[in-house]
Amino acid sequence: MYNDKVLKEFSNPQNVGVIENADGVGVVGNASCGDIMKITIKVENDVITDAKFQTFGCTAAIATSSCATQMVIGMTLDEALKLTNAQVVEYLEGLPPQKVHCSVLAEEAIKKAIEDYKSKQN
Prior knowledge:
Sufe protein. Chain: A; alpha+beta; 5 helices
């Protein structure tokens, strides 16, 4: 069902945990499948310098959380806001069609964390 890249990300996820005193926090969930993602970010000079995740969910949910956090570290906030679920799926070299919603959750969690950060700046 899952390719080797997805299984590798699931078995050895990167950036697991929570950033203490995070600059932004994004929490999303999907009631139909039960997946819940929390992504925390650290921002310096409009660049995401760290990102961590806590995910309750399936193999795809954990893999997409892991790769999404890896992808946004080093991006500006504007670049990270443009991250799409399709890019996450491409990074993972594909997901089964019934698991693509997990990549959508990862995209949404990143965006919510950035929105949270920006709301604290005003």
